[in-house]
Amino acid sequence: MKERDRELDDELAAWVRLRADELIAEGHDPEAARRRAAIELGGAEQVKESVRDVRRGSLVEQTLRDVRYALRGMARAPGFTAAAILALSLGIGASVAIFSVVRAVLLRPLPYREPGRLAVILHRRFNPTAPANFLDWRRTSRAFADMGAVESWTPNLSGAGDSESVPALRVTAGLLPMVGTPPHLGRLFLPGEDQPGRDRVAILGDGLWRRRFGADPGVVGRTIALNGEKYEIVGVMPRGFDFPVFWARGRELWVPLAFGERVSSRTGFSLRVFGRLASGATMAGARAEIASITGELEKRFPGTNRDVTVTPLTEAVVGDVRPALLVLTGAVGLLLLIGCANVAHMLLARAAARTREVALRNALGATRSRLIRQLLTESVVLSAASGAVGVTLAAAAVRGLTALAPAFLPRVESVSLDPAVLAFGVALALVTGAAFGLVPALQTSRGDVAAALREGERGSSAGSRVCRLRSILVSSEFALAIVLLVGAGLLARSFLGLHRIDPGFDPEGALTATVSVAGTADADPGRRGAFYERLLDSSRAVPGVTAAGMINHLPLAGDIWGFPYDVEGRPPAPPGDASFATYRVVMPGYFAAMRIPLRAGRDFTPADRLGAPGAAIVNESFARREWPGQSAVGKRVTFDEEDGRPLWRTVVGVAPDVVRGSWTAKPEPEAYMPYLQERSYLERPGSPFQYMTLVVRGSGDPASLAAPLRRAVAALDPSATVSDVQSLRRVVGEATADTRFYLVLFGIFAASAAALAGIGIFGVVSYAVSRRTREFGIRMALGAGRGELVAMVLAESMRVALAGSAAGIAGALALTGLMRGLLYGVEARDPVTIVGVALLLAAIALVASWLPARRASRIDPRTALQAE
């Protein structure tokens, strides 16, 4: 060992003498030349340690030494280390955060037994069906081992604290066993418990069990009141159970669904149907069978079994969000690539200071593969540190994502940094380290001693090669940044377009709340209408309230009921071909509370009640479809019958088109009926007819009206429930939440990409200026002005940026087509957005290049020439 060390000392000394002789020949003082030679060669002790590492030890020992050496190198260059970790951790953190969402929403199996064998059977994929249709499908099908149906229900729960409205489902008895999730406590429904006359039973969700019953394990067997009727608790579902998650999320209660007199109905479309494939059956076979069954039923009962689809449950849950999440995944991938390119050219710049060290290692026995392994180890160590920071950022990002995620994003509550996500982060850090470190390692490990000693001189081929490589990397950063910024720009324009949509009402200053009398004395026929009339009077008397009204289902926030109708003077449509209109029931004052100005006719008044001539208000789409070029006021339509005869209603007003269930959906015909003339709402049992949505408009903050309104309801009937209290502005905000969510994420990614691209070109220009000090000194000595130097540096850097921008525009044109489903009112290849983004990045490149260019113009020619 000592003999090898002496040989190494002799070799190092020889290299120092060689370089010193070269410096003396250039005219340097001999003592100064020897000191400079030792400094340039990295220091004898440091190089000795490096070469000793090359010559001895097993692969594991060498790797450990490489890791320690990398850590010391990072500590010696804190500025470089911090910049590299920042660039990489942004990409890694964003990638891990988005992967956690993709894993929870797209990759993780649904939490049911054999979820791949569960299917949804509906009209046109999402529309419900009628009880008689479901019963025929279940009785006839052989491809499905079982079918179950569910129906939305929002009962008032009492008997365990204050009364509250609970989001619930009525389900056929076999549905929960078919799903295959066992209860946490008690049992599931038994066969036959969904038949009329059976004892009423209920199953609680975990949240309701904890909130209302304090997680009492003895809750099974207790009794609760739902809409005033007694139900025995027979089970509690486990934490996290939610079914079905694509339609009715967050349900906290399940009760058996008894059809009763509806068993033969083919017109009450309220059921969502689910099935489990039989053993040996396939989804394609099930589709063919259901098509055959519904085809026969459609012949017998026209208009009842059209467009029935069989959709895998997983596809129904994630189908609409899959493209958006894949686009976001691609966006974070681009951001990570930008970070890798940035760190790669930072390593190339740093490699210039290590050229002689690597050349000595090579000359003293290190193979190129050994040098590459050492340099890659350093890159991986740097990436591992970036990964640790990135995972920390991802943890914060996941909390932000789940808080900002709109309601449409399914299974968002299960998003977390679980072991699989952390393993992805570790793997990503390792792969990233190899990716950004490979090119610098290959470049640096060439180890040409002569080139090492000449490096930095004007015309050096090695230096030119490195500069070209760094320019290519920065051009790629600009190309990737263009794609991200174009995507963000398109989403921003879509968001602006959404805000330009006229909803047909004024959301500012209005508060909404659902008021239910189900299960109370005021639910009785004859009292219901009087209760809501008194509530309107009390609401209008609240200080600050300027208008108040009611509607059965609020636009954007409630159900959409479609009813067939006929127009007076025209023959009735054949079965299945009737025209449909959205059915709304309102109290006087609704249009004023919503600030919906009538286009013609009048509003409803308290005189529009039972016994008075039937009245209706239609929207402009209804009027245009049925009476184009004519006034709709005075025309008559019918939606239902009374004693076998059409119940005609006279159109007394025309309202503007108002957004319905979707902010961007095309307007459809809509009809408003006066609440006080609707026997179903005044007299029929069942919770769908026992609640109304109150809308009040005030002169100040709408939130300040919530407490007085609750007191007004309690004063009229303490058993009535008030739920879904929210401002109308919030309702509108939730309607555009998906575009806002994607815009925020894309905006963050794009801003980070633009910053990294600007830093990249700043680094390239700064490095080029530092390597051309002598050249600039000569140019200035020969008469070049400062302005000429600045212009020259800016022109060279802008060529790099423009080359990247041209490639980025081509990439954006090719890739932004994938975003069509996320855009509104703007084309995926919108030239204004693309040109605007290109100009923005050009401005960033100009500013980033001007700073080092100005520094170059201030070089003292004498100092520059003496330094070389």
What is the average of the pLDDT values? 84
Instruction: Report how far the terminal alpha carbons are from each other.
Output: 40 Å
How would the global form be characterised?
A: elongated
- Number of helical runs? 27
Strand content: 15-25%
Unreliable stretches (pLDDT < 50, length at least 5) are: 449-462
Instruction: Indicate the percent of residues in helices.
Output: 40-55%
Radius of gyration: 37 Å
- Please tally the β strands and state the result: 23
Structural class comes to: alpha+beta
Largest sheet: 12 strands, mixed
Written description of the protein model:
With 868 residues, the protein is of the alpha+beta class. Helix content is 51%, strand content 15%. It is built from 27 helices and 23 strands. A hairpin with a 5-residue loop joins strand 3 and strand 4 (164-165). Helix 16 (461-499) packs across helix 25, helix 23 runs parallel beside helix 26 (831-857) and helix 25 runs antiparallel to helix 26 (831-857). The relative contact order is 0.11. Residues 449-462 have low confidence and may be disordered.
In short:
The chain is an alpha+beta fold.
Strand and helix layout:
Blueprint: H1 2-25, H2 30-40, H3 44-55, H4 59-76, H5 78-107, E1 118-123, H6 131-140, E2 144-153, E3 156-158, E4 164-165, E5 168-171, H7 175-179, E6 185-186, E7 201-204, H8 206-213, E8 223-226, E9 229-236, E10 253-256, E11 272-277, H9 283-300, E12 308-312, H10 313-318, H11 322-351, H12 355-363, H13 368-404, H14 419-444, H15 449-454, H16 461-499, E13 510-516, H17 528-540, E14 545-551, E15 562-567, E16 579-586, H18 590-594, E17 600-601, E18 615-619, H19 620-626, E19 636-642, E20 645-655, E21 670-674, H20 679-683, E22 691-698, H21 706-716, E23 721-727, H22 728-735, H23 737-771, H24 773-781, H25 786-815, H26 831-857, H27 861-867
Helix pairs in contact: 1-2, 1-3, 4-13, 5-11, 5-13, 5-14, 11-14, 11-16, 11-23, 13-14, 16-23, 16-25, 16-26, 17-21, 23-25, 23-26, 24-27, 25-26
